[in-house]
């Protein structure tokens, strides 16, 4: 396994991380989920991804069971919360701590920053970031970040609003894959800013849950190599079978920085398929937007905004 530094935190994390969503899928039973997590840790992966809303909490519950018997001490645990209000964010964080059955979470991220209003809600006086800052002071978490998959301009706006509020994110999670380079590109627009800010870059959707592979232009290992070649601290990948875990380790073991020729070959092969975002539906549809289907997860709008709106 390759290890990299997580932004300016100084933490050493595995260059590949285990995605939490797949651990709670119906075709993955609890025994297999625990085996995947423990085998990953035993073989050298230490970065574990999860989220409060994944599979109605089942993903966190299974990961929590996997972290028993000494595995917690060997893992860097990340989860995400959807709440935009301080009250809802604090509630979800406490639920995640109970499900994961751990005393603290290494990294908590604001999930699905996919609307231009999200930064304002997060950084309101009664917003979610106030809850995470208080939780950090109380020892419930160590680092704070955010995620999003919709549009690089929204990520850039979140960074701008954070700066206006004097806040520096430890990590930022972005879709990074060989097709993103061609369409509404996080690689081109967001990654350079994150490098300047020395934030830990967490790559996701390197294969978009297999959707990229349906283009028949790239292989799974090529997808992982492309994402690993970017200035990522971690590339998070979904694993629902032991064979997929083996594939992730094979990609790490065979990875070498891509030559310009190799990189251009991959981009050339995917250019036509990627041109209109067909294989990145998380950018072009609402199918991947859990908070759009469940707006109650966000919590109430800021009181000072509601007061301005006529009843």
Task: Write a structural description.
- With 311 residues, the protein is an alpha/beta fold.
- 41% of the residues lie in helices and 15% in strands.
- It is built from 14 helices and ten strands.
- It has helices at 30-43, 58-66, 86-100, 118-122, 128-137, 152-164, 186-189, 191-197, 220-229, 242-254, 260-274, 281-284, 290-293, 303-306; strands at 3-5, 12-14, 16-19, 47-48, 76-81, 105-110, 141-147, 171-175, 200-204, 234-238.
- Strands 3-10-9-8-7-6-5-4 form an eight-stranded parallel beta sheet. Strands 1-2 form a two-stranded antiparallel sheet.
- Strand 4 (47-48), helix 2 and strand 5 (76-81) form a beta-alpha-beta unit.
- Helix 3 (86-100) crosses helix 5 and helix 9 packs across helix 10 (242-254).
- It starts with a strand and ends in a 5-residue tail after the last helix.
């Amino acid at each position: 396994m390759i290890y990299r530094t997580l932004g300016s935190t100084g933490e050493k994390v595995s260059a590949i991380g285990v995605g939490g969503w797949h651990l709670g899928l119906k075709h993955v039973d609890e025994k297999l989920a625990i085996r995947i997590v423990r085998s990953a840790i035993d073989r050298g992966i230490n970065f574990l991804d999860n989220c409060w809303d994944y599979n109605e909490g089942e993903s966190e519950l299974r990961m929590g069971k996997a972290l028993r018997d000494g595995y917690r001490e060997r893992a860097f645990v990340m989860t995400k919360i959807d709440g935009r209000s301080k009250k809802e964010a604090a509630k979800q964080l406490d639920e995640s701590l109970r499900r994961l059955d751990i005393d603290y979470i290494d990294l908590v991220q604001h999930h699905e920053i996919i609307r231009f209003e999200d930064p304002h809600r997060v950084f309101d006086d009664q917003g979610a970031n106030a809850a995470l800052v208080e939780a950090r002071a109380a020892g419930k978490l160590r680092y704070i970040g955010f995620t999003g998959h919709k549009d690089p301009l929204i990520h850039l706006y979140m960074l701008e609003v954070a700066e206006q509020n004097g806040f520096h994110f430890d990590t930022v999670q972005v879709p990074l894959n060989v097709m993103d380079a061609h369409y509404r590109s996080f690689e081109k627009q967001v990654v350079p800013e994150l490098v300047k800010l020395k934030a830990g870059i967490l790559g996701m959707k390197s294969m978009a849950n297999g959707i990229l592979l349906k283009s028949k232009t790239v292989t799974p290992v090529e997808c992982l190599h492309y994402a690993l070649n970017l200035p990522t601290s971690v590339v998070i990948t979904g694993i629902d079978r032991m064979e997929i875990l083996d594939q992730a380790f094979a990609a790490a073991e065979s990875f070498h920085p891509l030559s310009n020729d190799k990189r251009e070959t991959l981009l050339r092969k995917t250019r036509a398929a990627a041109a209109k975002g067909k294989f990145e539906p998380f950018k072009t549809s609402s199918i991947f937007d859990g908070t759009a289907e469940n707006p109650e997860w966000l919590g109430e709008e800021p009181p000072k905004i509601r007061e301005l709106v006529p009843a």
